[in-house]
Amino acid sequence: MNLRDRRVQYETAGLDRGDLADDPIVQFGRWYADAVSAAIA
Prior knowledge:
By secondary structure, the chain is mainly alpha-helical. The protein has one domain (3-37). 44% of the residues lie in helices and 0% in strands. The chain has 2 helices and no strands. The longest helix has 14 residues, at 24-37. The chain is flat, with a radius of gyration of 13 Å.
């Protein structure tokens, strides 16, 4: 697998503090769940 081929540009999507959980552990759980749903974790 070539990692360069899996690279994605995220210029259109940003990170907005208002969308983040106050608790970093909760936020990690959200990101991890998203990764599992996308079959990348």
